[in-house]
Amino acid sequence: MSLQTIPSDAADHRANRAEDAQALEADAQLRDDIRLLGRILGDTVRDQEGAELFDLVERIRQTSIRFHRDEDRLARRELEQILDSMSTSETVRIVRAFSYFSHLANIAEDQNNIRQMRARAAANNGGSGVLAETLALAKGAGITADELRRFFKEAQVSPVLTAHPTEVRRKSTMDREMEVAALLDRRERVTLTEDEAAASDEQLRREVLTLWQTNLLRRTKLTVLDEVANGLAFYDYTFLREVPRLVNTLEDRLEEGGEQAASELASFLRMGSWIGGDRDGNPFVTADVMRGTLRLQSSRVMQFYLNELHVLGSELSIAAHLADVSEELRTLAERSPDTSPHRSGEPYRLAVSGIYARLAATAEKLEVEITRRPVGKGAPYESVKELQADLDVLHRSLISNNARVIARGRLRLLRRAVDCFGFHLARLDIRQNSAVHERTIAELMDAANPGMSYLALGEEARISLLTNELRSARSLVSQFVKYSDETMGELNLFHAAAEAHAKFGSDAIQQCIISMCKGMSDMLEVAVLLKEVGLVHPSGRSAINIVPLFETIEDLQASSSIMDRMLSLHDYRRLVDSRGSVQEVMLGYSDSNKDGGFVTSGWELYKAEIGLVDVFERHGVRLRLFHGRGGSVGRGGGPSYDAIIAQPGGAVNGQIRITEQGEIISSKYSNAEVGRNNLEILAAATLEASLLHPRQSAPRREYLTAMDELSNLAFKAYRGLVYETDGFVDYFWESTVINEIATLNIGSRPASRKKTRAIEDLRAIPWVFSWAQCRLMLPGWYGFGSAVEQWIAEHPDKGMPFLKELYKEWPFFRMLLSNMDMVLAKSSIAIASRYAELVPDEALREKIFGRIRREWHSCIETLLDIMGQDRLLQGNPLLERSVRHRFPYLDPLNHVQVELLKEHRAQNPDEQVLRGIQLTINGISAGLRNTG
């Protein structure tokens, strides 16, 4: 496949010539990598499919370039003629070629990012990474190393992997792509001989050919445990090694130029997961599935510890007659079941063998699989603290006998890993919709109190009843009552959570999240259910955090008043105090966006945080916010660092949890070096937002007022289109791939909460996914342009200069516009116009698409004016070039998708038609680098 990438604009001058030269060099290296992979892919297509198909691919690409440049109608007709003339079989092969190019271009871009990260590290004399830069800022602000250690002791930074079905790639293709990335990386770092270079080329060709002959799509539906296994792969790729390494590196940086700290740095970075615990709308997450999830998690981490111990034993060949050892180490060695005469004089090896035997026995007790058996039997560890104590014996002995450099090797990483991951690996959240909890409590209450109708009670009556029940030692559940399957399913899950605490420790499940939380009773219902299984005690103790999730615009607006009353309620406040006086609150970005649009969602989230910070400060309770951000901007996505820094003052305060979703997980964490950088970003942003930012919500009060007005105007525009325009639901279902997305085997969860076509019942993921596929990305910008135009008309005295000032001075507004800038750059109104033609009602099509087109143009015009740019992404040249280079390969996939949708909806019985649509969905997702 020919790869004539478009050169950077000559007008893109920069003030710093050194940076310019570096960027141009990086660009050249990126183009070289893309050309190399494209050439190999082209050769593969020619060899496997013939020269005729290869020539067809080139013809389509060239015509696509002409069409994309200025909505060239002649090129559009020519492209349509080419596509119309192709057989279904040819179409599918064309789609695969363009899809794989997008996948390979992504690999080249990732490698280029790594190259630039390493270049920055070299330029900074090894002080690489955003975390090192933030520590330098803290030092410059007069914050001492001891103060930073105290900060991290109370801090918690937690990326939470979710099971949301937005990753369209199979693990089989990801594995091959990682091999390609590793080969590119080696070519970058090692000077190859002629023979080695030839071997590398051949290996690249082998991997690309294997990719070409591998199914891009899954043939079967994923189960929940399949999703768990896919999520666990990222621990092998990144988390198991990079999380401990990051904390240890930070510990070293805090000790630079000063005395060693009295105690080790707290492990503030904690992994979380929803995969296997998120029941909201997923009937396949059962108590047994959750038990299986916990076993799989534990198995992965136990196997990692055992492998590390095996290697550590081979490394610690220290002889007792050549180096002193501590008495406690000798005692540990004497307890070892290892009787080999070859190790009789090697106390460290004997001690490690004993630890290995005990850990293997622990794995057996936890019912998890291990691959290598111990040399003898040992007593299982009763808790992870016992394992830590034995590893600490090794550490102290080495330190006390002048072998610190050995203690700082594999043993240090293992000790840190055990501290970070325990026997559970990741903290599994359990989540369910408040309506399900309500029905469960209603059934229990009505059975326990004949004549009662819980659902008929008002909110205040429910609060009183539930509060009394919390204090009661009696059980609501009776063995003599036959409950519904739904109620039994909920009770079984809570019992499984209590079992997990007893088996894996209380860290295994720390959060119980209430989706669509709308009032105090929603939280109290969960507290009562937890009491039924012993996780909440009538005396006011709780072994788990009860976390409300506020999702809609209305719920976000009510969140502060709800939490104010909850923290004033004596019986609930006791539960919070028993959890260290920390209350977690989750904010939903996805549903609030679908409910009120991008601008209003962002603003109401920001205001909710301001209100919550104030409430929690008055009550003397520490607030931990959990941000339910999606992968795409339309679901709250975008750069994590900017998002955290843009939080209002006091909203971070050293504690933050953030969801990592779908294809974002693989793009961030499938490569260890990129993964480490992304983890650093979360830690650095949390530190900066907590310690270095002044406590203020916005620079000036009038900024808040202006944002309120803009939000109201944008809300009216968005709701007016999506919820108040007759025929919009039909337009959406007919002009997007929403129906066809449901046929993809990309997740275990249904696309809608109910079996209706209503936008209200549609999940946010397929909503955003569908708009991304047709290249409109409507949830990421609609309403902003008309809101700005109307606001300026109403405020002629302030006008555009005031909005420019807002952009310059306020990080929140800057982030809002920056995200829109990125989304609009990936959109194409020309491509979207082809999807609009799928709507058979011409009047409906013209009415709605005409409105969308006008808003799109208005949004871009006002955005560029406020940001002071001549074109989209002008301030982010690297991303600008990336997007521009992709269009010639992305646009044909959209054109083909439209043609196949016409065929499919005309009831073409050929199975290849639907398969072709599914392949285009995969390729477009790869080209855009985000889906839902």
In brief, what are we looking at here?
With 932 residues, the chain is mostly helical. Helix content is 64%, strand content 5%. The protein is built from 37 helices and nine strands.
What does this structure look like?
This protein is mainly alpha-helical. 64% of the residues lie in helices and 5% in strands. Strands 3-2-1-9-8-7-6-5-4 form a nine-stranded parallel beta sheet. Helix 19 links the parallel strand 5 and strand 6. Helix 16 packs across helix 19 and helix 36 packs antiparallel against helix 37. It is globular and about 85 Å long. The two termini are 29 Å apart. The N terminus is likely disordered.
Ranges with pLDDT <50 over ≥5 residues? 1-19, 631-637
- According to DSSP, the number of beta strands is 9
Sheet with the most strands: spatial strand order: 3-2-1-9-8-7-6-5-4
Q: What does the main sheet amount to?
A: 9 strands, parallel
Helicity level: 55-70%
Question: What is the 3D form?
Answer: globular
* Euclidean distance between termini CA atoms: 29 Å
Percentage of residues in strands: under 5%
Number of helices: 37
- Broad structural category: mainly alpha
**Rg (CA only):** 29 Å
Overall mean pLDDT stands at 89
What is the secondary structure topology, with strand pairs?
Elements: H1 17-49, H2 51-70, H3 73-85, H4 88-123, H5 130-140, H6 145-154, E1 156-161, H7 171-189, H8 194-212, H9 224-255, E2 272-273, H10 287-315, H11 327-334, H12 347-365, H13 384-400, H14 404-407, H15 410-421, E3 427-428, E4 430-433, H16 434-448, H17 459-471, H18 485-504, E5 511-515, H19 520-532, E6 545-550, H20 553-568, H21 570-578, E7 582-588, H22 589-596, H23 598-619, E8 622-628, H24 640-645, E9 655-660, H25 662-669, H26 672-692, H27 701-722, H28 728-735, H29 738-741, H30 764-773, H31 784-794, H32 799-809, H33 811-826, H34 829-836, H35 842-867, H36 877-905, H37 911-928
Parallel strand pairs: 1-2, 1-9, 2-3, 4-5, 5-6, 6-7, 7-8, 8-9
Helix pairs in contact: 1-2, 1-4, 1-8, 2-3, 2-36, 4-7, 4-36, 4-37, 5-26, 7-8, 9-10, 9-15, 9-26, 10-12, 10-15, 10-18, 11-12, 11-13, 12-13, 13-15, 16-19, 17-19, 20-23, 22-23, 27-31, 31-35, 32-33, 33-35, 36-37
